[in-house]
Specification:
Elements lengths: L1 E2 L6 E2 L1 E3 L13 E5 L3 H8 L2 E6 L4 E5 L3 E5 L5 E6 L5 E6 L5 E6 L3 E6 L5 E5 L6 E4 L10 E5 L2 E7 L5 E8 L6 E5 L2 E5 L3 E6 L4 E7 L13 E6 L2 E6 L2 E9 L11 E10 L3 E8 L2 E7 L1 E3 L6 E3 L3 E8 L2 E10 L13 E5 L4 E6 L2 E7 L2 H10 L3 H10 L10 H12 L2 H12 L3 H13 L3 H5 L11 H14 L1 H10 L7 H14 L4 H13 L3 H11 L4 H8 L9 H7 L1 H10 L6 H7 L4 H14 L8 H11 L4 H7 L5 H10 L3 H10 L3 H12 L2 H11 L2 H11 L3 H10 L6 H7 L9 H41 L28 E4 L5 E3 L16 H5 L9 E4 L1
Antiparallel strand pairs: 1-2, 3-30, 4-33, 5-6, 6-7, 7-8, 9-10, 10-11, 11-12, 13-14, 14-15, 15-16, 17-18, 18-19, 19-20, 21-22, 22-23, 23-24, 25-26, 26-29, 27-28, 29-30, 31-32, 32-33, 34-35, 34-36
Length: 851
């Protein structure tokens, strides 16, 4: 059911697609009956023709009257033209002039706002009239009429009307349409097109089905644009394109020609045509067979939208229209007119006028709502918000639908988008969800930013969770800002529940979070420590609670030793080392961990505790005792040696003995207690003491395995012959042959290394000698700027004609011969005294220049 804006009446239709309950395709057009003044007119009279202008409508009746109507159907003017049927009304583009013809032969052309006009009575019925589209202009005062022949009327410069016959002899003219310079008309034979600018007829499109009476099944003509004509006749449709002819092909032919770009047959008889973008709107007259009647009966007319194709068409939509008295109407009783400005289509029948228009966004949303496609309707409303006029409640309808379906989660999620910042709607929805027991569903979508509901709303939801879902309650407390609700009220509610279940970790954790928000950090810290909660350290750091943990250090370390110690060491300025040691005095294992990390960070910071640490390492962490003894320079060695000897820690005792200078005793312990010759050899290598090597040989001489170890490792530090000479005869030594081979191999390796080094040294010496020789063989430049290194005068005399003698050393120092120092101790050898003084080597090799 569709309610029209053009009047108060309702109008119904059936869509062929709508007959299928599984077909949910949206209709393309909406329909409404043209009411108001039209209703009264058609009760007493019957519509015979109508023409449409963007600003108004012109309706002709069977009783010879013409009514001007607004687009709502209200009568604005009335003309008594004739006592008989009005056949056609024509308007120019401006809507200022009208042409009317009637069945009794009357033709009237007049201005709606001027007194000028043309009145003529013919002796035969005039079926059609058409004004030039630009009739209002003085240069285009032309119109045509059609009865038995097609006449063109033109007003000349004397203001008189000149008549010329464009066509005759092919029966009655039943339709004419004028567009720009082209006039198209239909008679009993076919359709002709005339070019008014060249005064040439350019085509003749013959009628296909000549068996149909042209008066009962008249031709429908419609210009899609200035060069495209659509012809509908019977059940045949042709789309004709008017084209310019190439100048080389013209000869005696018209300058234009017509090409049929599409032609197809339809199922029913055509009563009217109109363009809709690149599609066509067809009004069909329908006859159907009944199961109870042998003859055909008249069915409701159909309005179809089709997509033309080169050799056929595709049906887009089809609607059967319920017009008044459709059972009595013939094909010729229907007309289809259209308004190009607004894509309005008028279906005219004798007793009814129906307006079809393209569906807008509001109609689209209405259809989606009717089909309960709320999600799509809401999306369409959001995308085209500016075009939506009546759909403020779409979202609420969608939410109501989801609630009725029981899809509470989706309904709650849509509240965020639909309710927006309307606090009243939010609170109403919350109470509705409470009524149906679904507060949990809406809880995560409640506003918590700039828009906030009353605290009571949030507290109501928190209490609901507290009764049934501790985990959900804890999640909300973490997610919701504390200012949304009264913190003390919720704290009291949680405390009441803890009385029933005092060990519930979820409630305790949540209570600690509430205390934290309320800045009661001590209470929160107690709970976190009791629960050993991982956030305890974050809480301490964030709120600087170090003063509160001075007496809780043992608890913190029992929870997480590593984190606790790191925190204490990072904040020594807030909790001193002495204070920590005092707290840990009864827990030596924890004290060791703290002091160990302190020592790792700085070997000197806790030096006064190093003596105490020796016993702690010995008790709780022996693997780190030896590294501690190695790294600490503040550790009392006697105390350490005493502890290690008491506990029989041989490796630590050996290290301490060597550090205290008793290396022979240390070596003895390695040999006697550890019985590890490799470690003994390593120890002797570290000390690099000949006496230790002698002691090592002495301790090992009666132990064949030790002798093997010495033979394998002693070669680079002690002459192996010393050891071999001391080996007793007939003593069995394991792997002796291999050890001797290794000694020989090592010796050979040493010889090879020495020889290799010698070769390298000789090669380098020769290379450097050659380089020095090349350097000394080069000439030395002596010029006016060169000076004597002794007298600092120019090395060359001012008068080059005089005899002079110059000595130049290879070090580039120059002297006058008379300025040379006395010769050295070596006869015949002169040295540069400057280079000799600087210990740069003898600057011998004098180059003498004499002239």
């Amino acid at each position: 059911m569709y309610t029209g804006e053009h009047g108060s009446s309702t109008y119904s239709l059936d869509s062929r697609e709508g007959c299928n309950p599984f077909h949910v395709e949206e209709p393309k057009l909406k329909y409404e009956r043209l009411a108001n003044g039209v209703t009264e007119i058609l009760q007493k009279d019957a519509a015979s023709c109508m023409t449409v202008h963007d600003k108004f409508l012109a309706l002709g009746t069977h009783f010879g009257k013409v009514f001007l109507l607004d687009i709502q159907g209200n009568v604005t003017q009335k003309f008594e033209i004739s006592p008989v049927r009005i056949n056609q009304i024509s308007l120019d583009e401006s809507g200022e002039h009208v042409g009317i013809c009637s069945e009794d032969g009357k033709v009237q052309v007049f201005g709606l706002y001027t007194r000028e006009g043309f009145h003529e009575n013919f002796d035969c019925p005039v079926k059609v009239v058409a004004l030039h589209p630009r009739f209002s202009s003085s240069n285009y005062k032309q119109f045509v009429t059609g009865g038995n022949k097609l006449l063109l009327y033109e007003r000349n410069w004397l203001n008189r009307w000149k008549t010329s016959t464009l066509h005759e002899g092919e029966g009655t003219i039943t339709n004419v349409q004028w567009r720009a310079n082209l006039i198209a008309w239909a008679n009993n034979v076919g359709v002709k097109i005339y070019d008014i600018s060249t005064k040439q007829r350019i085509t003749n499109v013959l009628r296909d089905n000549v068996s149909l009476r042209p008066d009962m099944y008249p031709c429908s003509l419609c210009w899609k644009d200035n060069s495209t004509l659509i012809i509908g006749w019977g059940s045949s449709v042709k789309i004709c394109a008017v084209k310019e002819r190439d100048h080389t092909e013209m000869r005696d032919l018209p300058s234009r020609y017509v090409e049929i770009v599409s032609a197809f047959e339809t199922e029913f008889f055509i009563s009217g045509l109109a363009p809709l973008a690149d599609q066509l709107v067809h009004l069909y007259f329908v006859k159907e067979n009944s199961d109870h009647m042998e003859e055909e009966f008249r069915a409701r007319p159909r309005l179809d939208i089709i997509q033309p194709l080169p050799e056929g068409f595709e049906e887009i939509s089809s609607d059967a229209l319920t017009v008044r008295n459709f059972q009595e109407n013939e094909c010729r009783d229907y007309r289809l007119e259209h308004s190009e400005g607004e894509s309005l289509f008028y279906i005219i029948s004798p007793k009814d006028i129906v307006v079809a228009k393209e569906r807008d966004q509001d109609d689209h949303i209405d259809w989606l709502l009717d089909k309960k496609k709320y999600e799509e309707a809401l999306m369409a409303a959001e995308i085209s918000f500016k075009n939506v006029k009546r759909h403020e409640k779409i979202g609420m309808a969608y939410i109501n639908h989801l609630v009725e379906k029981g899809d509470y989660a989706t309904a709650a999620r849509k509240c965020q988008k639909v309710l927006g910042k309307n606090m009243e709607l939010w609170e109403n929805e919350v109470y509705r969800f409470k009524t149906i027991g679904q507060l949990k569903a809406i809880s995560q979508y409640l506003p918590r930013g700039d828009l906030r509901l009353r605290p009571a709303i949030y507290e109501m939801i928190l209490n609901e969770f507290l009764k049934t879902d501790y985990e959900g309650f804890a999640t909300l407390i973490r997610e919701w800002p504390g200012e949304l609700y009264n913190n003390m009220t919720i704290v009291q509610a949680v405390a009441d529940h803890l009385k029933k279940d005092p060990t519930n970790s979820t409630l305790l954790t949540t209570l600690a979070e509430l205390y934290t928000y309320d800045q009661r950090y001590d209470r929160a810290l107690e709970i976190y420590l009791r629960l050993r909660h991982k956030d305890v350290y974050q809480l301490i750091h964030k709120h600087n609670l170090f003063s509160s943990i001075e007496y809780k250090i043992v608890l913190l370390m029992d929870f997480d030793k590593e984190k606790a110690v790191d925190m204490l060491l990072d904040n020594e300025d807030k909790i001193s080392t002495d204070r920590v040691l005092e707290e840990l005095r009864d827990r030596p294992e924890l004290l060791h961990i703290y002091l160990h990390k302190l020592f790792k960070r700085d070997h000197h910071k806790g030096q006064r505790y190093h003596e105490r640490q020796i016993g702690l390492y010995a008790e709780y962490d022996r693997p780190n005792l030896l590294p501690f003894l190695r790294d600490s320079i503040h550790c009392p060695l006697e105390k350490a040696l005493e502890i290690c000897q008491e506990r029989n820690f041989v490796e630590e005792t050996v290290f301490l003995l060597s550090r205290m200078g008793n290396c022979r005793r240390a070596l003895q312990m390695i040999m006697e207690e550890l019985e590890d010759v490799d470690k003994a050899i390593e120890f002797a290598k570290e000390q690099d003491d000949a006496e230790l090597w002698e002691d090592l040989i002495f301790y090992s001489i009666d132990k064949p395995p030790f002798i093997t170890g010495l033979l394998n490792n002693i070669g680079t530090h002690v002459d192996p012959i010393l050891l071999i000479h001391r080996i007793k005869e007939r003593m069995e030594i394991p792997n002796l042959r291999d050890s001797l081979v290794k000694i020989l191999h090592d010796y050979n390796l040493q010889i090879l290394l020495r020889e290799g080094c010698k070769k390298i040294l000789v090669a380098d010496s020769l290379s450097l000698l050659q380089k020095m020789h090349r350097t000394q063989m080069r000439g030395v430049r002596v010029d006016e700027e060169s000076i004597c290194e002794s007298c600092h005068a120019s090395i060359l005399p001012s008068d080059m004609a005089q005899n002079f003698s110059v000595a130049v050393f290879h070090c580039r120092h120059m002297f006058h011969k008379e300025c040379l120092p006395s010769p050295g101790t070596i006869p015949g050898v002169q040295f540069c005294n400057i280079c000799s003084a600087k210990q740069r080597g003898p600057g011998s090799g004098i180059l003498e220049i004499k002239k």
